[in-house]
Amino acid sequence: MLTKKILKICLALVYFMLFYSYIAVPAVPAEANQLNINARAAILMDAETGQVYFAKDADKSRSPASLTKLMTAILALENGKLDDVVTVTERAASVYVGSTIGLQKGNRMTLENLLKAALVTSANDSTVAIAEHVGGSHESFVYQMNRKAILLGAKDTRFDNTNGYFDPHHYSTAYDLGLITRYALQKPYINKLVSTRETLVSWVEPKKEREVNNTNRLLREDEVEGIDGVKTGSTARAGNCLIASATRGDKRLIAVVLHAGNRYREAAKLLEYGFSEVHPVTICPAGREMAKIRVKGGVHETVPLTVAEPVRVEMARDQQLNIKLNTSMYGEPAAPVREGQVLGHAVFTIDRYQMIKVPLVAVRDEPPVSLLDRMMYWFSK
To answer: Which domains are assigned to the chain?
Structure first.
């Protein structure tokens, strides 16, 4: 009987401990890369700094579909004038697949109205008319698009056309599209168009106009607080793609989803994650030894290096376990070394994307090894 009573008491204690641990210990938050995004590739990026808060296969080549038109608009604004009158060629008029504005050969429209058609209603024919007018030819304009991509750091992007029609030589990545979007949003006119819900597209000849609605459903339905852009894209090969942006307070985020199950839901999920989970975090206090560097002719063989100021970044707290540090030294200094002297730098990354680069400085003075040199060193201080 006594043994049975002891067994019952032990079982009761075990049950109580398990139950208590269940209600008392909070669930461990999922890591950022476990955020469930139903898309072949995705990225969440800070519009101002370019810092990446989430990435899923963001460096893998994908067909960008009509997201291509952001680069078309960039080149049009940088090399053309909004009030230029464009005469539609037979090539532009022959574009009929996908979304179009119904251009006919000989139609005349301003570059501004062609850009409205391209960015608001995603008209494929308008981008060809833009390219031929601004670039002199479609091929020349596409060459300029590729050159601009390289200048913007979009090294894994190659364009073969202006509207996003599928071609095996026409590709980009979620990360590159984020870079291109950051640049595009710095242009007030593009920024205005990608947030426009509906507008009128006008012809100079024949005299007519047409009302168009933005293809980005998030803008029309207010599903995301602060939504203010950017561009949809879809083809059979690319699937449903979306670049979306939203601003709350002084923070603007860019979400890119490629070949998504539900592009609006997945982009909204990314944006909400960014606004709710990303906060300022100190990832390295000042004074902590980060590395050591060899010193020529010093009393000691090495000098410890640290960061002069606390390193603070904005990130999701559950990403901290994914931080990686790379240090680089500026050669081997010769004594004397002064406390606070910059001798290298540290780069903090998450998922291979750089968060911040900071200088590394000497923790202490390192005088020369010879007595005479040391006396002169201390005297000079």
So the answer is: 32-279 (3.40.710.10), 285-380 (2.60.410.10)
